[in-house]
Design goal:
This protein is mainly alpha-helical. 70% of the residues lie in helices and 0% in strands. It has helices spanning 2-32, 44-72, 76-122, 137-145. Helix 2 runs antiparallel to helix 3. The longest helix is centred in the middle third of the chain and has 47 residues, at 76-122. The protein is rod-shaped.
């Protein structure tokens, strides 16, 4: 029986050491992060991407750490905390995905506009027509149908020899 207790104690100690190692890795990741002293319009996108990815990674690591604890215990508060962490991680990933899709759409739209501009530049310009006729329907019909008939002069052909004078 002493052997069984010592093996259980050893397994508990190993689990505790494993938990401590995971916590240390989270601290090391936090220490390695770059600090943005000032956020400008130029680096705000980079800052948002970097911090969002760090947040998602830390949330997923926390989910992995708490998952083992929640599975072994039956504390409703721990289960609720794990559920909230999973929910937060999925919402964060969804927002990052939306930002990514929006950026790709904007990039594609810009490329399409450039292609349209290039194709329109190669087209010949339409002639500029400034002749405008303003008339009523009756005036137009009168012009179309009431034209005075122009009689053509009949040409009479005469046969004969003509000399040059």
């Amino acid at each position: 029986m002493n052997n069984d207790n010592s093996s259980e104690i050893e397994s508990i100690i190993q689990e505790l050491k494993a938990d401590e190692i995971k916590d240390v890795t989270l601290i090391n990741q936090t220490n390695k992060q770059e600090n943005f002293n000032t956020i400008t319009d130029d680096n705000v996108n980079e800052y948002v991407y970097k911090k969002s990815s760090e947040l998602v990674e830390s949330t997923l690591n926390a989910v992995n750490i708490l998952k083992d604890t929640v599975v072994t215990g039956s504390d409703p508060k721990e289960i609720a905390a794990l559920a909230q962490l999973i929910n937060a991680a999925s919402k964060s990933l969804d927002q990052l995905n939306k930002i990514n899709i929006q950026n790709k759409t904007n990039k594609n739209n810009m490329e399409m506009k450039k292609m349209e501009i290039e194709s329109n530049a190669n087209r010949p310009a339409l002639p500029n027509t400034t002749n405008v006729v303003i008339a009523t329907r009756d005036e137009i019909m009168k012009q179309l149908f009431d034209k005075p008939s122009q009689k053509k002069n009949n040409i009479d052909l005469i046969e004969g020899d003509f000399e040059k004078q």
